[in-house]
Specification:
With 330 residues, this protein is of the alpha+beta class. It is built from 11 helices and 11 strands. The strands form 3 sheets. Strands 8-9-7-11-10 form a 5-stranded antiparallel sheet. The longest helix has 17 residues, at 90-106. Residues 1-13, 20-32, 97-112 have a biased composition (Polar residues).
């Protein structure tokens, strides 16, 4: 029994090989397992991060490096910093010293490389700012609108546009500005507009046979006269009377036509003149009647009306400004 235990202990003990050259003991290598010795580092492993410098310390180090402060100076807030403005080049320093000495001996002023600006007198500056040159400006003259006209049926052309084209071409050498078609008392007239009285006089002397309407039997050459003889200018009293018979209708939708406005307001009297003007997304209508019935009604009774299902606002002629401002009338 004891022999078997001794044999087991002997088998479990490792075999030690002796190397005569190195005199080191090493265990015999096994075919399956090899003893590996772990590497041990001599450096200590630190569990904490190194302390980072603060922003103040970083600023101090930068300033010390920039101005070459001696180590151990201390707090930079209590240490005055001196800036070395002496030239880095020794030869330049010697030249500057010699120049200053020579200037001092001669009694002159020291010259530098930089030219200094002379101080500006505030009084002279303010005077220069106040004196602004006045440039003469010629006023733009308003050219007169001198109009001559003739009945439209005496001028050749199938449409009003063709008639205006023939008028512009015929009076082109007389300085015609434009041509238009106007209706007076239910009759149509073709008009030629000029800006100088001399051009009007020359146009009235011309032979108008080339403008004859050949489609009309027995037609004669058109005769042009001043438009003021066909329709005299209104006097101030007539203009005031027309304003008293006029109303202004606002907030009319763009799809409404003049016929719609005329149909909605025709029950207030006979409409002499109606004009539509587009204002943004709406239209304004100026309606002139032959009496003051409509203007009186929309001044005393109502300030609105309907064009079919659309409600619109109405301002009576010359009093509409007072209505907007909320003034009282007498």
């Amino acid at each position: 029994m004891s022999n078997s235990k001794t044999s087991r202990r002997t088998a479990q003990q490792p075999v030690v090989l002796i190397d005569n050259h190195n005199s080191t003991l090493r265990p015999a290598s096994s075919s399956k397992h090899t003893n590996k010795k772990s590497k041990v580092s001599s450096e200590l492993y630190t569990l904490q991060k190194p302390v980072q410098p603060t922003s103040t310390e970083i600023d101090e180090s930068i300033i010390k490096d920039a101005y070459a402060l001696p180590p151990g100076t201390g707090d930079i807030a209590n240490t005055p910093l001196t800036l070395d403005v002496s030239p880095k080049n020794p030869q330049h320093k010697i030249d500057t010293t010699d120049a200053s000495c020579s200037t001092a001996q001669s009694g002159g002023s020291v010259s530098t490389d930089m030219e200094m600006d002379q101080p500006i007198d505030p009084a002279s500056t303010s005077t220069q700012q106040r004196t602004i040159p006045v440039v003469p400006v010629d006023s733009i003259l308003i050219l007169p609108n001198l109009v001559i006209a003739t009945p439209a049926d005496t001028v050749k052309g199938k449409s009003a546009s063709d008639k205006k084209t023939h008028i512009r071409r015929f009076f082109g050498t007389n300085g015609v500005a434009t041509a238009s078609v106007r209706n007076v008392a239910g009759k149509s007239y073709v008009c030629a507009h000029f800006s100088a009285q001399s051009d009007v006089d020359d146009a009235l002397k011309r032979d108008t046979a080339p403008l004859t309407n050949s489609q009309k039997e027995g037609a004669s050459a058109p005769t042009f006269t001043l438009f003021t003889t066909i329709k005299p200018d209104k006097t101030e009293d007539e203009k005031a009377a027309a304003k008293n018979c006029t109303i202004q209708v606002i907030d009319i939708y763009l799809y409404r036509k003049g016929a719609d406005v005329r149909a909605a307001f025709s029950n207030f009297g006979n409409i002499v003149k109606l004009s539509l003007v587009t204002k943004g997304l709406y239209q304004n209508a100026y309606i002139q009647f032959d009496s003051t019935v409509a203007s009186t009604y929309f001044t005393e009774n109502a300030w609105s009306h309907f064009i079919y299902e659309d409600a619109v606002r109405v301002l009576p002629g010359p009093r509409r400004i007072h209505i907007i401002l909320g003034s009282n009338f007498v």
